[in-house]
Structure formats: structure tokens, C-alpha cells
Amino acid sequence: MKLEGIIFDVDGTIADTEDIHRQAFNKAFSKFNLNWYWSKEKYHELLFISGGKERITKCLTEDGAVNEDKNFVEELHKCKSEYYRSILIDSDIGLRPGIKRLITEAKENNIKIGIATNSSTENLKTLIKKTFRIEPKELFNTIITNNIVIDKKPSPEVYYRALTDLKLSADNCIAIEDTANGNASAIKAGLRTIITTHAYTLDNDFSGASLVLNNLGEPKNGFCTDENFHCKKSYVDIELINTIIINENDFLLKQKY
Length: 257
Description:
This protein is α/β, with parallel strands linked by helices.
């Protein structure tokens, strides 16, 4: 076995977009005259729920005085998404460490790359054009968003669809994720996972992951591993991923403290 495909999550994995989403939610709440404000602490709790509409619905359920109509949720979330894209375009956001390097290396080695995200196609397009200056379809071999697969992570459906489109076996691919739900989704689909944490996911349960890191690292600015892992390399590249793919059991035995 060898690596043939890398499937990336988007929000929090390709770029640190989660707080931009939080800001957009709060702007939408204000526009709709909702007496809500999602602090970073509150948003941290809500991220355990996959999907913006689902987070809104949960809060509406907890607030009996607010309209729970599905059309209301749709309109509120649409407003939020428009704010998100507007804030994103005006921001100075960049890619997380190692993302561009790993994608470039994959392309050079004829390794397919895909997207499997709970986000929308339009949100993804805005982010990729902002960070890569290119249309997503020119970069990725498959793009699976919530416009294509309705079931949200931790459902494995988004990864099943990505693997089908790539015409690859899960045994020859790896998923790059940042949340417990994303990790569970990929593992249920038979994929190995590399997790890159951030402020909102440091305390997530990443059971079953092959590596848990703070980012993918760069040759001159390496990653930090979770306390349960040790890795001789300081950045994630094709060689390291192939080590996991070829013999994960030996890899884990050697890498864990």
C-alpha cells in the first residue's frame, strides 16, 4: 500500500476560519434583532454540533420565545453566510502552516487531493480564491460540500462520497481534520486521520487518530505533537504519511511515548 489520496476538511483545517464564522453569526443575530451573542466560550461549546443551521436550531430550541420555523433558520443562516464571505474577503487570513506545501507536494507526486466539508460550496470557493488565488475545481480532484451531501459529520457520508469520486480505497488515503466530529467521520469511512488542532478544538477527543498536531508544520518551523505522540519528523510530508499508510501499527508503536 502507498498513499494515493489526501482528503482535507476546510474550516479550521485549511485556514483558521472558525472565529470568522462566529463573528458572522453575531452580525446576523444583530440584523435579525436577536438578543444573542456567541462568545468564544459559547462557540467552543457549539462547535461540538456539526453545521451552522444545526447550531442555530439548538439555540432556538433553548429559547422558546424565538420563532423556530425552518424558513427562519434558513434565512438567518443565509444572512450569516453572506456576512462570513464578506468578512473573509476583507480579512488578511492565510493558509494554516504546511497546507500549501503538502498540496504542492501531492500534486508533484500525482497524489489526488479532495475536499470533504460540512461547509457550503460558495463558502469554500470564497476561501480558496482568497488564499490560493485559484478556482477550487482547478486545485482539487473532488469537492464534497453540504450542497452535495446533507448528512453532517460525524456521519461518514461525506468521506464515502469523496472516496467514490476519487475512485480510491480508504486504505490508500488519509484525511486531514481538526475536530472530533471530523475525526470520527473519517475513521467511520475507513480512513486514517491526521489532526491539526486549534484554539477551539484543543480539548476534543481524537481517539483513533494516527497523529494529533498543532499544525502540519514547515521544515524551518516544525509542528508540536499531542502529549500522546512522538514523531521524529517535524513536518507532515508524503514520506511521513506513507509511513502511516504502509504500516500504521508499527508506526504507532514507534511513535507513541
